[in-house]
Amino acid sequence: MIETLDELSNAISAMEKVNWKINFNRLALAFVQPSIHNYTQNNLACTGILGYYCNNRDANVHVKKSLQLTDGAEDFTTLKNAIAQFKSKGKLEVFLSVGGWNYNCREKIYCETLKWYREDKPTCTPEEHYGYVCEPKGYNQDFDWFPDTKITDTEKNTWGWAAYANVVKMAKDLGCDGVDLDYEEFWHADWNRRKWDDQKFITDV
Q: Which of 42, 145, 170, 196 is such that its CA lies 20 to 30 A from the CA of 75?
């Protein structure tokens, strides 16, 4: 799994040292944000991958790398060229990985859900990091989630389908062989869980 440009460069160097004689045949590039509804073709801006995280619910909020399109376009080309190398020299199948731990937690809804059964009621505000339900204190991670295309809200439904279409488009633009869906929405599991025979829950999911 490759998450930064430095890791990408190191991976290529390591494979060149052994003349591309490697003992694996698949490579996952992680992680793309599931809510990528504003993808600019051949540009990494607001995709979530290689540090280009963007809060897709608020266009004015972004962290980590600059969202200047010139940076994103240059790094997109770097990534695309690397993928071509992996496929031609290493004979690897390359997948664009979507989701992962941080991109599977909708902190506001998860926080409100936990209020139903936790004795220590979390404070569900941005200032309190929604009770740190998605992260330990001090980590300051970036969060995203898979859009629900079955939702009745027409605008959100359209937004969700656009996001998934952009994931496929991005994979094709990069020359990937496919898409890996890393779906692990633990907050959904908590939200929909039930008790059996009046037994208490042993642990939170």
A: 145
Q: What is the pLDDT of residues 143-162, one digit of tens each?
A: 888 887 877 777 777 888 89
CB atoms within 10 A of CB 200: 6
Q: How many domains does the chain have?
A: 2
Coil vs helix vs strand at 96: strand
Q: Judge whether 119 and 131 are in contact, CB under 8 Å.
A: no
Dihedral sign of CA atoms 27, 55, 73, 10 in order: negative
Residue type at 145 in one-letter notation: W
**Same domain (yes/no): 112, 19:** no
Q: What is the pTM of this model?
A: 0.79
Residues 134 and 63 in one domain: no
Residue 136 amino acid letter: P
| Token pair of 40 as six digits | 């600019």
> What pLDDT was estimated at residue 82?
94
